[in-house]
From TrEMBL, chain A:
Belongs to the pseudouridine synthase Pus10 family. Residues 305-560 form the Pus10-like C-terminal domain. This is tRNA pseudouridine(55) synthase. It comes from Vanessa tameamea. The lineage of its organism: Eukaryota, Metazoa, Ecdysozoa, Arthropoda, Hexapoda. The gene is LOC113391591. GO terms for molecular function: RNA binding; tRNA pseudouridine(55) synthase activity. Its EC number is 5.4.99.25. The keyword Transferase does not apply. Residues 125-274 form the Pus10 N-terminal eukaryotes domain. One of its GO terms (biological process) is tRNA pseudouridine synthesis. It holds the Pfam family Pus10_C. The keyword Signal does not apply. InterPro entries: PsdUridine_synth_cat_dom_sf, Pus10-like, Pus10-like_C, Pus10_N_euk.
TrEMBL record, chain B:
This is Protein Abitram. It comes from the Eukaryota. GO terms for cellular component: dendrite; filopodium tip; lamellipodium; nucleus. One of its GO terms (biological process) is dendrite morphogenesis. GO terms for molecular function: actin filament binding; actin monomer binding. PANTHER family: PROTEIN ABITRAM. Belongs to the ABITRAM family. InterPro entries: Abitram (IPR039169), GCV_H/Fam206 (IPR033753), Single_hybrid_motif (IPR011053). Gene3D superfamilies: 2.40.50.100.
Length: 582, 177
């Protein structure tokens, strides 16, 4: 493939240097960083185009280095454009569509810096509509920087994403069809995507402006999205209705399904069928009247996750805020107690904290159940964080949580999103150990004197400890539990098979009617319902082992058998911040 | 640090010894249903609008020591084949206050109907009554409940407010004795 010929041809269509490189299929990021230098190798050596002379090179360099000097850049750029246009006009037989005569009056309203001219040429690439042309970038840099300054991310790398005008798809197709027509062996697949070329050029320079290093989206957690719009887009896309009338007729029939007429997808579909003839007839590569402009930028940091275990010492504290019909039932919750110090650490306002923090736990205990031992595994998702907390800060957060006296968190550590799977899996698969304080409510048939006060006997204890209804070694009591009435209004009615794996009863000498139970159960076992039997809906109940009616007075979770937080891997070495721009 | 479970609650607080039904349900009563004297039922409302149907202690049923059977086939409808699906409890039999949930058939051939007393959906019949009908007599306000019903929040609240509460019930029953 003759790259020089492709370059020359694309240029003649009105493409910018970077777009010429894209159609040639150049994939080196460096080529795009300074496309005006790079393209010199595709010019004929004996070519007398002034742009390839040293004189023009110096103009390019001056345009890069003196960005802040608006007047000098614009005059430099204009000079080179004019020279370029002239050369094309004289050298090429195909009319140059890349330049347009614009009245100074129109231009002056947009560009007050430019000195008055009778006529001037605005050189906008027919393919990228200016997305890859540097004179368009300063406003993007500023827009991004403004947002970054406001948000204050500490991350020193970034990835960038482009939302380009859909009209560029149409124009790309038109250029490609021209190329295939001119060079029958041209492979349209070599085209370097606009987004890539943009990242390699705009992205790198943005990095210098915002003092961060450009990295891939797979690596850097900070994503900067730039939206570029093209004013005449809708008008130009109308062409597609002549190219692919059927598609748009169908879409307009299903207005509910296709709210927007021209989407990236619909345009791509329409272009599949486009021919050079149909696009040329519609003048798809018409000279742009204006360049695509940056209309917005968004910056977002990927969520970070903190892991820990909480110990809950209160019998009057729900895990998440308990709000009934818009009113709080209880003043606080485990979640809020943990979020409080984090909110301060990140300097979020309270409403913001509500949106930015998400509490994820391996199951939950009832309001009146304590969670002791090592506590219950949990994680916090922080969306769009400005930074990762230091080990010291996390320690302080834990101390502040624990000082309140209702919840204790001993340590927190950063984890990855993938680690969360274990937390959720643990909720469904891991066993839990409980301690229960129970009361014997009736005499059993083994009690000798049914008129004496009810007492728990050693025989009662032995009966509980030896009770089993399975032959399995692992399972002591196999339960059938219907969905408890207390949650039946919001969960389906099902009968679940659950297991008590270990069960030990002990006497409490100072309280003869009470006894203590320590039990380990499979995940999802309703311990309270097992203890009182829930009107026969959970069977066999504790009463079946005791041979007398029984109830539960207090319940503690003693252990959630899940290794958490996951074993720590060595964190990736932090990158050095880029040198500051002068 | 050890957190002793015995120290974690106030054992002198009588409320911790309340029975399961007293802890979670409010009792309401309907007397002389269908104009039949002492055809008294009790509805137990959970705060989440789940409602249990039971016989009130003043029901004439408890005065008759004879043997009985429970029949859950009402006309063409078999209450035992009631099936609810999903969180929304779709497919449950629709009930109006007059709907009969179960017939008590005495050994002497006489019988009486137990109505449900409220508008709603049948969620569950107490299946333990099928094999163990005596619990209706022995534990009428707990394991011998008859059915679980669910109705809209509005209807549940309205029904709860218009029916006799426990104190009013005790007054009425004591007067009529």
């Amino acid at each position: 493939m003759d790259q020089k010929a492709i370059y020359k041809f694309c240029k003649s269509l009105g493409c910018c240097e970077a777009c010429c490189l894209r159609y040639i299929g150049i994939k080196h990021p460096n080529a795009y960083e300074n496309s005006k230098n790079y393209v010199t190798k595709f010019r004929e050596e004996n070519d007398l185009e002034p742009i390839s002379t040293d004189k023009n090179m110096t103009i390019d360099v001056s345009a890069h280095t003196s960005e802040k000097n608006g007047a000098s850049i614009s005059s430099n750029v204009r000079n080179s454009d004019e020279i370029c246009d002239k050369s094309i006009d004289t050298k090429e037989s195909i009319t140059n569509k890349g330049s347009t005569e614009v009245d100074t009056a129109v231009l002056d309203s947009n560009d007050s810096v430019s000195p008055p001219h009778k006529k001037r040429k605005l050189n906008v690439c027919v393919s990228c509509l200016g997305v890859l042309q540097e004179d368009n970038w300063q406003e993007c840099y500023q827009m991004v920087k403004e947002i970054l300054d406001k948000k204050g991310y500490e991350c020193n790398t970034f990835a960038c994403a482009l939302s380009a005008p859909i009209a560029t798809l149409l124009r790309e197709k038109a250029v490609t069809l021209h190329l295939v027509d001119e060079f029958p062996q041209y492979d349209a697949k070599v085209l370097t995507p606009l987004k890539e070329a943009w990242k390699w050029s705009f992205g790198v320079k943005l990095g210098a402006y915002i003092n961060k290093i450009l990295d891939s989206g797979a690596i850097s957690p900070l994503l900067i999205t730039v939206n570029i719009d093209y004013v005449d887009e809708l008008q130009e896309l109308e062409i597609l209705k002549t190219v692919s009338p059927q598609l748009f007729a169908e879409r307009s029939k299903q207005k509910r399904r296709f709210v927007t007429e021209f989407t990236r997808r619909s345009v791509e579909q329409a272009l599949e069928l486009a021919t050079l003839w149909s696009l040329s007839a519609a003048d798809a590569l018409r000279a742009p009247h204006s360049r695509a402009a940056c209309v917005g930028a968004a910056c977002a940091h990927a969520p970070i996750f903190l892991a820990g275990r909480y110990i809950k010492l209160s019998r009057n504290l729900p895990q998440s805020p308990w709000i009934l019909e818009g009113r709080r039932v209880l003043p606080s919750s485990v979640q809020e107690i943990i979020f409080g110090p984090l909110t301060k650490c990140y300097k979020f306002d309270p409403e913001d904290a509500d949106r930015r923090f998400k509490f994820i736990a391996a199951g939950r205990e009832d309001v009146d159940v304590r969670c002791l031992g090592d506590g219950r595994p949990f994680a916090i998702e922080i969306s769009d964080p400005t930074r990762q907390l230091t080990a010291e800060e996390m320690k302080e957060v834990c101390e502040e949580i624990s000082n309140g006296g209702e919840v204790i968190v001993k340590e927190m550590s950063p984890i990855s999103k993938e680690d969360l799977v274990q937390l959720k899996k643990g909720e469904e698969t891991k066993s839990k150990t409980y301690e229960a304080l129970c009361i014997k409510l009736s005499h059993s048939k083994f009690d000798e004197d049914h008129n004496a006060p009810i007492r728990v006997t050693q025989e009662d204890i032995d009966r509980i400890n030896s009770y089993t209804n399975t032959t399995s070694k692992e399972v002591k009591i196999a339960l059938q539990q219907k969905t408890p009435i207390r949650v039946l209004h919001r969960r389906p009615l099902l009968t679940r098979s659950r297991d008590i794996l270990e069960l030990t009863a002990t006497l409490i000498p100072e309280h003869p009617q009470l006894f203590a139970l320590r039990l380990r159960t499979s995940a999802g076992t309703y311990v309270k319902e097992w203890a009182h039997g829930e009107l026969g809906r959970s069977a066999p109940a504790l009463a079946a082992a005791l041979r007398a009616r029984a109830d539960l007075l207090a319940l503690d979770v003693r252990a959630v058998h899940l290794a958490w937080p996951p074993a720590r891997r060595a964190p990736p070495a932090p990158r050095a911040p880029p040198p500051t721009t002068s | 640090m050890e957190y002793n479970i015995l120290d974690s609650i106030d054992l002198n607080d009588k409320s911790i010894y309340k029975s399961f039904t007293d802890r979670y349900f409010s009792k309401r009563y309907i007397l002389n249903v269908d104009g039949i004297e002492n055809n008294d039922i009790m509805l137990m409302f959970h705060s989440n609008r789940i409602t249990l149907l039971c016989l009130a202690p003043s029901h004439f049923f408890f005065k008759n020591p004879d043997k009985y059977n429970l029949n859950f086939t009402i006309g063409k409808v078999d209450r035992l084949s009631n099936l609810v699906k999903g969180k929304g409890k779709k497919g449950g039999q629709m009930l109006t206050p007059k709907s009969t949930i179960c017939k008590v058939e005495w050994n002497d051939g006489t019988s009486f109907d137990i109505p449900c007393g409220m508008k709603g959906t049948l969620i569950e019949i107490n299946e333990n009554l099928v094999n163990n009908p005596e619990i209706l007599r022995e534990q009428p306000d707990s394991d011998g409940f008859i059915a679980i019903m669910l109705s809209s929040i509005a209807n549940s609240e309205a029904t709860k407010n218009e029916l006799l509460n426990h104190e009013e019930y005790l007054k009425r029953v004591n007067c009529s004795i």
